[in-house]
Amino acid sequence: MPKTKLSFKTFKSCLKKCAFEIVFHFDRIKFYMDSATKISDIEACQEYAKQQDISLRSLPHYDTMEYMIDVKQPTLEYFKALNAAMAGEYLICYVEIAMDILTKSKIKKDMLDKILRNLLIRQMKSNQQAFPYGIAGDTLYFGKRLSKYPVMVYYADKKSKLKPDHYCCHIEMRLQDTGIVKAQRLYTFADLINFEHELFWEQYLDLRTVNYTKLGRLATDGNKSDPTFLRNGLKLLNSYKCAQALLNERPDLLTALSPVTGKRMFEGLLKKEGL
User: What is the DSSP letter of 62?
Assistant: First the structure.
């Protein structure tokens, strides 16, 4: 993560100026609980979530945990209902922290999608996989399943789950085990209720812009002119699905990407694409 970067407040205000709406939510959670809480009380919480599945499943190393609950699109009311229903112990083991950038215009969504694919970066401390990347369909994964770190996921090929009449650029961070969940201080349902989404994205959102001329120069052998470097840089990046995919294969090209650091810079990138 660069030392100087665009604040989330500025990111949000620039998108609002372009008539985008940002909605924060939890896309999915999983938790284990013991038998002290009545299943019927948990089933009663279903009305506040898109889907809730309860299964009889024990948790290794936690002998008292007997049930696993998998919840999709839980609302604030869902967490409040759970908080009131819980009579025993529970353990949150999986959380998807999500941000939907919404618009009713498919053209505007496609413009923003093109920008974000080449701005979103996830840099890890590990030298062996500094820029983790995977793809399934049109969904980008900035990490691997069951990774021991938060994995960012991005897609823009689906309508919003929260507002089905809106097009959506969806960014989420997956916390895939209890240790990662606890590292975010999400121990209880009250923690989910009081979660500061903007502070979270302030920490994790990393946007970097590509200097195509420098990219072409770094990737091209021999003496060439700047216009040739520019063309080569554009051609190289366009051969990948996103900037993260490029860096996954060629981390040596990182110096061709600079952090987006301020309002004027981000607005310029939005305007360049037509927003």
Answer: B
Residue ranges making up the domain that contains 103: 8-204
Q: Are residues 181 and 196 in the same domain?
A: yes
Same domain, 113 and 141: yes
Instruction: Output the CA–CA distances (angstroms, integers) from residue 32 to 55, 66, 68, 169, in the order listed.
Output: 10, 7, 4, 31
Is residue 267 situated within a structural domain? no
Return the structure tokens found at 227.
């216009």
Are 253 and 210 in contact by the 8 Å Cβ rule? The answer is no
CA dihedral 212, 11, 180, 162 (to 10 degrees): -110
Residues paired with residue 136 on neighbouring β-strands, in sequence order: 139
pLDDT digits (tens, 9 = 90+) for 52-84: 999 998 777 777 889 999 999 999 999 999 999
Query: Minimal CA–CA distance to 34: which of 66, 2, 63, 11?
Result: 66
Model pTM score? 0.92
Query: Residue 173's beta-bridge partner residues?
Result: 97, 152
Number of domains in the chain: 2
Asked whether the beta carbons of 153 and 117 are under 8 A apart, the reply is no
- Strand extents, DSSP E, the chain: 21-33, 49-56, 67-74, 90-103, 134-136, 139-142, 151-155, 167-175, 208-210, 257-259
